[in-house]
Amino acid sequence: RPETRHWWAGLYTDFMATGIDGVWNDMNEPSVFSGGEEGTMPSDSKHRGGGGLPAGSHLRYHNVYGQLMVQASREGILKANPAKRPFILSRSNFLGGQKYAATWTGDNQSTREHMKLSIPMVLTMGLSGQPISGPDVGGFVGNCTPNLLGHWMALGAFYPFYRNHSDKETVRQEPWAFTKAIEQSARVSLQRRYRLLPYLYTLTQEAATTGIPIMRPLFFADPTAINLRDEEQAFLLGDILMVVPKWATNVKYPVGTWRNISLVGENSKTDAYQPDVLLKEGSILPLGQIIQSTADYSADSLTLLVSLDANDQAKGNLYHDAGEGFAYQNGQFLIRDFNIQRGESNTLIFTATVRSGQLSTVNHRYRVGIVKDSGVVYTEWTSEAMVKILRP
After folding, report:
1. Which of 29, 206, 231, 266 is catalytic?
2. How far apart, in whole angstroms, are the C-alpha atoms of residue 181 and residue 199?
3. Burial class (CB in 10 A: 0-12, 13-18, 19+), 290
4. What tens digit of pLDDT does each residue of 99-121 get?
5. Which label site among 120, 132, 224, 320 has the fewest CB atoms less than 10 Å from its CB?
């Protein structure tokens, strides 16, 4: 009912005044723990509708209930903080609900099977129109083991939504709760995530404007390859990164050259937990600095990892805005295109051009790293929009 949604939205005024940045709407299917059908109210329970929605049964409105709840939450948060972008996380949603909230996959279990299952779940969510989703890393129900947490924290760095979360009755599963080795592995996982923020932010803007998922099935690399359609272990992050978990077996790879890269100096070939991250030939990947919080994020100094194709060419792009507020809707953003092509006398020509946007306060500087089988060869930092570099 519109009256109920208006009441719910009004509850956020005092809430947000305490300094809260985001809201988590839980148990909003709705759930009924006793006497209900399959954990919810009877399917013939009546919903009165209103505001253009007809009256109907709970069978009709069970999932819509969650969407209307997060819609009301967003409206209330925007009214309380009109200059800030709302962040809402929901357990229940419906088609179109991605306009209002991110979603996580519900109360999973601390098992290897549920960790593996999370990949096709998040991929399917993306294909269904929900680009930002992820499971409870480490599992919600049951006691997580050190080995499981190491693997899951490493995998989770590549989910669109990344959160370690568990039931209060379970053992503690923070990154530092087990051994020093697990703590260090989790640190590497988090650092990988932070370095990828420029790329992830670009993918999020792409999802918001085109609907294409952030985390994508491997067959997106080649829709004609029938053998890729049932691959549920490896996946794509955007269209230029392939992620292969350490535990994956008999992975089906798309054709072409995909080069293994290091994001923070780690060696995934010898690391017990970190997935392999492979960069597609002909691609340029923007990386940020290792930071401790998104509050420290800056796109001023970018490392560009380059995987050349057979013609010594590569391309990539970056989306950037203020990270808060709505000025981007009035053109206050930048989309930069990066390009490398073969020059004369064993050189490569690097260019960075503004494709669109009017944001004028960003002075980028770049360090270009050419990925080779033996490692990465870096150039010096430069702020030039065009520079000639020696081919390594």
Report:
1. 29
2. 28
3. middle
4. 999 999 999 999 999 999 999 99
5. 224
